[in-house]
Each structure stands twice: as structure tokens, then as C-alpha cells.
TrEMBL record:
The gene is LOC115975186. SUPFAM superfamilies: PLP-dependent transferases. This is Methionine gamma-lyase. The lineage of its organism: Eukaryota, Viridiplantae, Streptophyta, Embryophyta, Tracheophyta. It comes from Quercus lobata. Its cofactor is pyridoxal 5'-phosphate. It comes from the Eukaryota.
Length: 454
């Protein structure tokens, strides 16, 4: 789309395909034709209900699953139509497509699902989570601009804000304790700070952000709130709590298969429009395009995301409770002694639990590595690997892996212990089978001479 202003309403016709002519008569306009919103605003409280109410795209020949539109470019029936598309008069809201870097029907369908999942007006799916994060920040913050961000962030995001954006774009960031509202407020400079950025549940420390209060403080100073909700799809709905934009690494829980890299930006239609602008849009010009075949795969997995999340969260709570009883230092928002337990309980979506990740602090990297080695190679409890949201349990020592971009001082400020083991709890096998495997590994560790704490 060239002039995205003409598409700010984001409406779409029914599923009928264009045939024969590209003409539209005067009656076929936004006011008189009955159309379905491209990204309908959900009226449901449960994200699963919102997903179920989203438009269902059928296949080319009436298949219950949509067809994959694998074309890079799209034909028109009349020469004049192409000019009208590039001028913004005709676009995907009326089933006109130019080129798949702009919009692709299959990717657009996944974007509708992501908007429904996050209760936002619109969404755009990208080639990775980092593509989503960098694109939205570069759209909202210009050269010389300022951001405020949480100290506890995924290492790649921290590196983007700390090193790349200042060097390449003259964009600076002040890092704060996101739980200290006064510190957050004081770090924001009226007229200069454009974005407050944080994770709904921090990676890897599992601190839960007070999204309603943080949004209130930011909006008082005219600052946009961008929340990474990768750790808590279905569990938390940031946009309903006041956030302006929600970003995801779809590669994690939403995919569930550890086989796809993808991301999403969920927010107002005006933001997605601006990011697709032919002259100034980061999504348009940087080209973080999602492949249509990837979008199809993900669209088939989203319908059972709610079921998967409930089981991830259930097992995480059971394991965290049992680990704590064994005397381990466990961090999990579902435990009543977690500092943000009541906060998450107050605004988390009902019946989805407290998240599928927990942390066990073994204090030293040596103890952490020994525990993970036993859990993988002796008892087969899980796998030593980064990422999360897989059906198998994934384990990593965060300080030396996914948070390795932070220096020692930054890790200390973020609360990342050298022996912090992050576990993404899977659901394959029975719960008792997996718990038995954990107990056996811990018993082996307790019997060893190097394990002298427990």
C-alpha cells in the first residue's frame, strides 16, 4: 500500500474472489456495502473465545483450511488497477494485493489471529521476534529520540537498545527497575521520551510488570507503551491493561514446535498503517517479511494454543511447588511468596495459570550445569537448549546463554544469578513420569561430593 491513510478503517469484503473486472461501482463503498472488519475488535473476555470469533479463511476449493498463497507478486485484470493500488485507492481491504512484501493473503490471515489473540485493532506478522521489536521501535522513535526500558530483558533486545540503536540510529535508552514506578516516571523526559519498553514477564527473572500502572505513568507523559508478551500468551493481555503495542516472538509458545522463527506486532491500525507506508514505514522498507508457508503452519497451531498453555502452566505450578518443598530456591509467579503473585492473579486471564516457565537458582554456574547435565543425560527430564514453549522441557543457564549480552553489572542489576536455571516446562509424557525424572537427578546431585548445599 502506498498511501496508507486511505486504509485507516481496515475493512474487508466477504470471502468471494475477484473475477473478470477490477471495477467497483459507486455503491460498492465503505459506507454502503456490508463488510467484515479486517481486524474486528473482540468483544470477548477470554482470548480463546476471541480467537474462535475471528474470521475463518476457507480454502480455494472450499477446504476447511485456507489455501497457501505462495505468490510473490499478484496480477490485475486491468492496467489502470495497478495505478490505483499504488496510490492507495485499492488494497488488501478490498482483496487487492501487489507484492508479498507488502501484504500476502495467508500472512494477513495469521495477522488477524494475532490481533484477536491480543485484543488489538490490527497486527502484522514478521520473519522473527527481533524483526518485530526492532521495526516497531524504529517506527516510534526517530534519530535523537529516547526510550525507557526494563533492566531485565532478553539479551538480544538488551543488545539492540544498548549498542545498536545508539550507534546506528542515535536513539538512547535509560534502563530502570520496572517495579519501581517512581524510577520509571523520573526516567521519562517530557517531549523526548517516546517509548516505555518492557516484558510482561521478564526474561529470565520472571518478574511480572504492573502493566496498568506503568501504562498510566507513561501516558501521562505522552509516552507509548510497548510490551513483549512472548512469555505469557493467553495468560496476560497487555493491550487490555493499557499497553499501546504488543510484540511477540511467535517462535516460542505460539508455534510450540521449536521449528519456526517468526514474530508479530499487535497494536492500533494506525500504527500498522504507518509501518506499511511506502516512504516511511519500517515494515515496508526494512522488509522483515514472513513467508506464506510459515504463516499457514502457524495458523494451524493457534487454535490449540489455549489448551497447550493451560497444560504448560499447570505443570509449571506443580513442579515449582514440589521443588520448593524439596528446599530448592524456586522463582515462579504462581508461588504465593513470589513478589508479583497477587499482581498477576489480579489481572491475568482466568483459568490460564501463571505461565509455563520457572527458574531454579543453583547460585553457581557449576551447580547449574551439573543439574542440567543430570536432567538431560541421566534421567531424560528435559533438554539443554535455549528458547521456550516447546512440548519438551527446555533448560538453560541464562547468565551464560540467553542473557550473555549483558555484562556482569547489568546482570546483577537485572537480578540474574550466575546459577539461574531457566526451565520452560513441557507437557509431553505424564506429569508424574517427569517429576520422577527430576527427583532422580536431584538425588544423584545430593549424593555427589560437589553438591554441598542441600
Amino acid at each position: 500500500m502506498a498511501d496508507t491513510k486511505s486504509h485507516s478503517n481496515f475493512v474487508i469484503s466477504d470471502n468471494k474472489k475477484r473475477t473478470g473486472s477490477d471495477d467497483f461501482d459507486d455503491s460498492n463503498n465503505f459506507k454502503t456495502i456490508k463488510k467484515q472488519m479486517l481486524f474486528p475488535t473482540s468483544t470477548h473476555d477470554d482470548p480463546a473465545a476471541s480467537l474462535a470469533a475471528a474470521r475463518h479463511e476457507f480454502g480455494e476449493h472450499g477446504g476447511v483450511n485456507m489455501s497457501i498463497e505462495a505468490s510473490a507478486t499478484f496480477t490485475v485484470m486491468e492496467p489502470e488497477t495497478m495505478r490505483r493500488m499504488f496510490s492507495g485507492e485499492l488494497g488488501p481491504d478490498r482483496d487487492f494485493f501487489i507484492y508479498s512484501r507488502h501484504f500476502n493473503p495467508t500472512v494477513l490471515n495469521l495477522s488477524r489471529h494475532m490481533a484477536a489473540l491480543e485484543f488489538t485493532e490490527a497486527a502484522y506478522c514478521t520473519s522473527s521476534g527481533m524483526a518485530a521489536i526492532s521495526s516497531v521501535l524504529l517506527q516510534l522513535v526517530s534519530s535523537g529520540g529516547h526510550m525507557v526500558a526494563s533492566r531485565a530483558l532478553y539479551g538480544g533486545t538488551h543488545a539492540l537498545l544498548t549498542h545498536f540503536l545508539p550507534r546506528a540510529c542515535n536513539i538512547t535508552t535509560t534502563f530502570v527497575d520496572i517495579n519501581d514506578l517512581e524510577m520509571v516516571k523520573n526516567a521519562m523526559v517530557l517531549g523526548q521520551t517516546k517509548v516505555l519498553y518492557f516484558e510482561s514477564v521478564s526474561n529470565p527473572t520472571l518478574s511480572v510488570a504492573n502493566i496498568p500502572e506503568l501504562s498510566r505513568v507513561a501516558h501521562e507523559k505522552g509516552v507509548k507503551v510497548v510490551v513483549d508478551n512472548t512469555f505469557a500468551p493467553m495468560v496476560i493481555s497487555p493491550a487490555r491493561l493499557g499497553a499501546d503495542v504488543v510484540v511477540h516472538s511467535i517462535s516460542k509458545f505460539i508455534s510450540g514446535g521449536a521449528d519456526i522463527i517468526a514474530g508479530a506486532v499487535c497494536g492500533p491500525a494506525s500504527l500498522v498503517n504507518s509501518m506499511m507506508d511506502l516512504h516511511q514505514g519500517t515494515l515496508m522498507l526494512l522488509g522483515p517479511t514472513m513467508n506464506a508457508k510459515v504463516a499457514f503452519e502457524l495458523s494451524e497451531r493457534i487454535p490449540h494454543l489455549g489448551l497447550r498453555m493451560k497444560e504448560h502452566c499447570h505443570r509449571a505450578l506443580v513442579f515449582a511447588t514440589r521443588m520448593k518443598k524439596l528446599g530448592l530456591k524456586v522463582i515462579y509467579p504462581g508461588l504465593e511468596d513470589h513478589p508479583n503473585h497477587n499482581l498477576l492473579k489480579s489481572f491475568g486471564n482466568k483459568d490460564y495459570g501463571f505461565g509455563g516457565l520457572l527458574c531454579v537458582d543453583m547460585e553457581t554456574e557449576e551447580r547449574a550445569n551439573r543439574l542440567m547435565n543430570l536432567l538431560q543425560n541421566t534421567t531424560q527430564f528435559g533438554l539443554m537448549a535455549v528458547s521456550l514453549g516447546y512440548y519438551e522441557t527446555l533448560m538453560s543457564c541464562s547468565g551464560s546463554s540467553t542473557s550473555s549480552e549483558l555484562n556482569a553489572e547489568e546482570k546483577a542489576l537485572a537480578g540474574i544469578s550466575p546459577g539461574l536455571v531457566r526451565m520452560s516446562i513441557g507437557y509431553i509424557g505424564t506429569l508424574e513420569q517427569r517429576w520422577s525424572q527430576f527427583e532422580k537427578a536431584l538425588s544423584r546431585m545430593q549424593d555427589s561430593a560437589t553438591f554441598n548445599k542441600y
